[in-house]
Amino acid sequence: MNNSMKNQSTAAEELENSYRLPEIVRQRKQTLKKLSLKSGEHVLDIGCGVGFLSYEMAVKTGDSGKVIGIDKNPEMIRHSINRCKDLHNTEFMEIEAGSLPFPENNFDAVCCTQVLLYVKDVKQVLTEIRRVIKPSGRVVILETDWRGVVLNSAFDSLTRKIFSAWDAAVPSPNLPVYLGPLLKKYGFSSIQVEPVPILNTEYSSNQFSHGMMKWITKNALKQEAVTDTECRKWLDDLEEKGKTGSYFFCVNRFLFTAVLA
Predict the structure, then answer these.
(1) Where are the beta strands (DSSP E) in the chain?
(2) Is residue 135 classed exposed, middle or buried when 0-12, 13-18 and 19+ CB atoms within 10 A define those classes?
(3) CA distance 258 to 34
(4) 94-122 pLDDT tens trace
(5) What is the pLDDT of residues 171-210, one digit of tens each?
(6) Does the pTM exceed 0.90?
(7) CA 8 to each of CA 16, 77, 171, 197, 223: distance values in angstroms, whole numbers, following the listed order
């Protein structure tokens, strides 16, 4: 297995574990509620990951419906296919979000979870969503503003470096701030936004931020924003705060819903 395939496999396994965490389960329920799916509807899941949401949407739409999940990581697709193997109304494809191989007015709803942050051309993806969604079709988009993280750390300067490196690693780090106006510009109306906060006051493997803090320090090290020693010092401080009951992490995700005008 080459490095690229290994990285894709690791990312899928990490997502598999992350999406079982209670914070993400609640997020998924909130997303499903906003989608308001009905039996027989056709849905597109952009950036389906390992298929947790696709599975639940397929159950909602029933045998007369259809859920198509797309992701650019083939390992994510493999996990999704396996997760939904007992369902007969799902299909998964390894394709990019900016070039959708579907006809116009094809879907009743489109969802996009934690994807646009990583997309270079958000406008192109919104153009494609508008093209493939039916008139009055619904779109639900979930994104995080990592610039708003609240974290109890003894090393504020290191914290800024590590999160700045995370900003630098993605094309649209501050997307929630301007996503609403973008949706309006691209023909969507009835735009609503609600927060999906993730709050952790424990530093343990069954909490979202535990894995995320390790992930972003690994990224900062890769970007050469910090040294290995600095990363270790920063993470050790979080571990200690977890042991003494003084750990605190909070970040807001934002759930956007809109209708094609």
Answers:
(1) 42-46, 66-70, 90-93, 107-113, 133-144, 150-151, 188-200, 249-260
(2) exposed
(3) 10
(4) 999 999 999 999 999 999 999 999 998 99
(5) 988 899 999 999 999 999 999 999 999 999 999 999 999 9
(6) yes
(7) 12, 11, 19, 28, 19
